[in-house]
Amino acid sequence: MRRFLPIAVAIICGLWVLADFFVSHPLIDSVGAKLLEGVMILAAFALFAGILNLLGFHARRISKDQKDWGYRLVLMVALGGTLIAGIVLPGSGALSWIFGYMYYPLQSTMAALLAFFVVSAAYRAFRLRNGEALIMLITSLVVLLAQLPFSNRISPYLPLLRKWILDVPVTAGTRGIILGTALGTITTSLRILLAVDHPYAQD
To answer: What backbone torsions phi and psi does residue 42 show, to the nearest 5 degrees?
Structure first.
């Protein structure tokens, strides 16, 4: 019973919400909207529980004076300050100051550090070991050269070639990835709806 009940609830709720997208009926629409509202409420409680768990975890580590306790303290202070700025002082501009002068600079710093890893990965990927690597290297060089402000002086066809690369092969690859992701999501959803996979139930 402990295993059957969550599976049955998940199947019924999932099929009901799925039917709400395809069938227009007052009862189905009303219940589907209530189910979606319930999901939002559960997500809010899950977020709150996650915050409490995070604070408790790091507070215990700080009290035990474990290694890197200073970073944990910074995390707790930053989390608490952001919550206070967003909940207690919503219209004071404090939250905008935190994002503008703390979060965004840190985000830019992380992106700058990632650039070195990207260059290292590109160096390993662009080694001329086979024909595919040669095609990737030539394509990357064309796109990079076309980004330069004086690319027209190098060749008037360089910007056109870059546009064709981005519009045709890159767009086709992106659509293939999106379609693959969509098919994977549909497959996973069907497996959960049909109770093939049931991560919400105890074995």
So the answer is: -65, -40
